[in-house]
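Sat 14:20. Reprocessing the chain from the morning session after the first attempt stalled halfway. Input below, unchanged.
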Amino acid sequence: MLIILIAHIPGNGAAEWIPARFGFSDATEIFVLCSGFASALAFGRAFDESGWGLGTARIVHRLWQVYWVHVGGGEDGDGGQEHADMDPVDLPQAVQDARGAEPPSG
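Finished this time. Tokens:
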């Protein structure tokens, strides 16, 4: 994040020394790499102790929670938690609930 900040400050002399200037990678690629390391730290134990099946299930569950916080977060103040543990089959109804729309009849 610091590299992104440095790269976007106009007239900053330090911007000449960021990794993108030397061809290694730009700030977004480094951010994604750091995110991967953070995910490995957060979910690595589940893979080691319980195997690929449970490790993958934990990641998918967390993705589902983050998605619902993003989609339904904020309007009613619950941050999307109302639908975080919902079955994916109920997705259309949950999206309508998050947006405050009336469900279609029929």
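DSSP finds three helices and no strands in the chain.
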